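Quick one, tokens below. Sequence please?
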């Protein structure tokens, strides 16, 4: 039978498993397995040639039981509402697992930003914010960057919101440029948080990471910074990286600055001198100690999970591993650091950004990183210990920790 690859069906199946182990009552489980609210809308955008194109946009507020909904906005041609629902669910478990006082949400626009000019991208970003302005705000729902959205887009959206409400409210959105109330360290926070969890995994597994090999699938924000930090923080040797067009490998190691310069110049990691080209699927199966999936969903499936040779899979992407693959990896003794734990550094520093905006008082990068480290390390060990105690894989353990926290908030509010 072919595998179910609908991300929301996967997110619900993962949740259901945790609900049974936690013995959640039926009403609570029914409540937590679906989004509380969602908005679907059209965004008409005036194109540079004078024509108008209508884009489809979404914002899903999965849960605000623990605080305002929180989560990024993706601009992607293959975006679907079920992908956004899944991502919003994972944001809910993510903010809970690192124990920050926020809920979970996600937004998206079906579009191909690579085909839009800067001015079209600005009008689309402002149009998106106009469509959701009444539903967001620092006490309601706080968006952020995600796949193919960046600090400049956050700046346009913040400006549009402030024009609409008539006052400054930097905390309406996070991942802003530093000059507009962004946080030091936010750009690299997703990768850095993941790197801290790999460091802790190395300790509990008794593995020496210094000089050990790593491969990174995906070379966007998370993958790029992971390349730098895997080397500078952990001493790992990154031997392979890839982007949407394909991958490169050199067993002597790939210099991050050189690969990034090449990608800036040519638009891809492909063609990097002194490296051999490989496909994305070959990269996943390389004999490395640590594998970082850092791109999109469903790349490690029932089909290829048995071929993975990595000892640690650190999921910087959201939803890279299917439930079938999870079972295979667990049986094979692969240590998976699940997505909503591994990549929670981004939203953790987004939360720090909101705190700094509220106080109008900014921290230096050292302080951000130190506080991030504390959050990630505590979350990692809470999940690791849960996995040991309950004899379940780390993903189920992360759900047990997170769902229990959200359920407590729902109960205390008297909703269920
Ligand atoms: N998009 C990021 C994530 O999936 C960050 C979300 C945020 O900072 O709110 O975790």
């Amino acid at each position: 039978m072919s595998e179910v690859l609908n991300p929301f069906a996967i997110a619900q199946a993962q949740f259901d498993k945790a609900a049974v182990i936690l013995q959640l009552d039926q009403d609570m489980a029914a409540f937590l397995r679906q989004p509380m609210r969602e908005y679907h809308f059209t965004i008409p955008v005036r194109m540079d040639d004078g024509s108008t194109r209508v884009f489809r946009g979404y914002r899903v507020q999965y849960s605000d039981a623990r605080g305002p909904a929180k989560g990024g906005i993706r601009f992607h041609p293959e975006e679907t509402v079920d992908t956004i629902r899944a991502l919003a669910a994972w944001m809910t478990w993510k903010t809970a697992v690192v124990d920050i006082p926020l809920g979970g949400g996600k937004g998206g626009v079906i579009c191909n930003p690579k085909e839009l000019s800067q001015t079209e991208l600005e009008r689309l970003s402002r149009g998106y914010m106009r469509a959701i302005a009444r539903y967001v705000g620092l006490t309601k729902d706080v968006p952020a960057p995600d796949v193919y959205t960046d600090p400049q887009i956050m700046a346009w959206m913040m400006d549009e919101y402030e024009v609409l409400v008539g006052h400054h409210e930097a905390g309406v959105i996070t991942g802003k440029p530093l000059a507009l109330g962004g946080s030091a360290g936010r750009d690299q926070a997703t990768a850095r948080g993941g790197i801290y969890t790999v460091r802790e995994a190395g300790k509990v597994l008794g593995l020496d990471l210094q000089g050990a090999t790593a491969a990174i699938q995906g070379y966007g924000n998370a993958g790029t910074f992971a390349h730098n930090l895997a080397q500078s923080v952990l001493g790992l040797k990154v031997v392979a990286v890839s982007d949407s067009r394909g991958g490169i490998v050199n067993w002597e190691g790939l210099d991050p600055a050189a690969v990034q310069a090449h990608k800036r110049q040519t638009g891809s990691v492909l063609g990097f001198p002194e490296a051999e080209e490989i496909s994305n699927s070959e990269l996943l199966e390389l004999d490395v100690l640590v594998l970082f999936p850092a791109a999109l969903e469903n790349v490690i499936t029932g089909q290829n999970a048995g071929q993975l040779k990595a000892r640690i899979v650190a999921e910087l992407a959201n939803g890279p591993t299917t439930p079938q693959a999870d079972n295979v990896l667990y049986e094979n003794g692969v240590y998976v650091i699940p997505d909503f734990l591994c990549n929670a550094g981004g939203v953790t520093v987004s939360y720090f950004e909101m705190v700094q905006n509220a106080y109008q008082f900014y921290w230096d990068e050292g302080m951000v990183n130190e506080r991030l480290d504390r959050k990630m390390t505590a979350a990692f060990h809470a999940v690791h210990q849960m996995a040991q105690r309950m004899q379940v894989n780390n993903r189920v353990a992360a759900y047990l920790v997170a769902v229990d926290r959200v359920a407590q908030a729902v109960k205390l509010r008297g909703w269920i």
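The chain has a mean pLDDT of 97. The chain has two domains: 38-180, 189-342.
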